[in-house]
Amino acid sequence: MKMMTLGKPAPPPSDDPVFSGNVAYDELIGADEAELLRLGEVVFAPGGKTKWHHHGCDQLLIITGGHGRVGTRSETFDVRTGDVMFIPSGEVHFHGATEHTTMAHISVLTPGEEIIDE
Question: What is the rounded distance in angstroms from the CA atom of residue 40 to the CA atom of residue 64?
Answer without folding.
Answer: 12
